[in-house]
Amino acid sequence: MTRNSTPQGSARIIDLPQISDPRGDLTFVEGGNHVPFDIARVYYLYNVPVDSERGGHAHRDLEQVIFALSGSFRISLDDGTNKTEFWLRDPRKGLYVNRMIWREMDAFSQGAVCMVLASHPYDESDYYRDYNEFQAALRGEAK
Fold first, then answer.
1. Residues 53/105, Cβ–Cβ less than 8 Å
2. E strands along 33-82, which residues?
3. Is the sign of the CA dihedral 33, 38, 40, 45 positive or negative?
4. What is the pLDDT of residues 36-86, one digit of tens each?
5. Residue 91 located in a structural domain
6. Residue 7 pLDDT > 50
7. Into how many domains does the chain fold?
């Protein structure tokens, strides 16, 4: 479910293949094929208290695809002009988030597992953790 809109390519749902048989379902993801970048890092969040918030930042260069492997959560995106909200709950559907998009995650269900595929290894200098600094960067005001 989305509300409002984001510029083309900034955020979109990516559907992954599903192979089903009586033993269960299998979904796979290939960097550069199913996601628009080579995967440099994978991490996941779990045991997140249901009243917790995660995110609260943007990335200068990093691209991500975010999945709810189990349970559900809400992710709110802000590109400085438009705000969009997605509920992730299907492990076959990932949310692609381009660079320079502020993201906040909340409303985690009990037992939710969030997996993130990232285009780069961790680099603290890639983060905007202050919303005002993020907005200044969008306006071209270097700090």
1. yes
2. 41-45, 54-59, 64-70, 73-78
3. negative
4. 999 999 999 999 998 999 999 999 999 999 999 999 999 999 999 999 999
5. yes
6. no
7. 1
Name the residue type at position 98.
Answer: N
**Rounded-to-integer distance, Cα 139 and Cα 135, Å:** 6
Tokens of 9: 């390519």
Residue 6 covered by a domain: no
Instruction: List the one residue out of 22, 12, 133, 115 whose CA is nearest residue 66.
Output: 115
- Give the catalytic positions in this structure: 57
Single out the residue of 40, 36, 19, 33 nearest to residue 95, CA to CA. Answer: 36
Give the pair of three-digit tokens for residue 76. Answer: 């709110």
The CATH number of the domain holding residue 46 is 2.60.120.10
Range of the domain at 60: 11-108+116-138
Q: Flag whether 87 is in a domain.
A: yes
Q: Which two structure tokens, joined as six digits, stand for 71? A: 């349970």
Dump pLDDT digits (tens) for 85-137.
Answer: 999 999 999 999 999 999 999 999 999 999 999 999 999 999 999 999 999 99
pTM exceeds 0.85 = yes
In a domain? residue 3? no
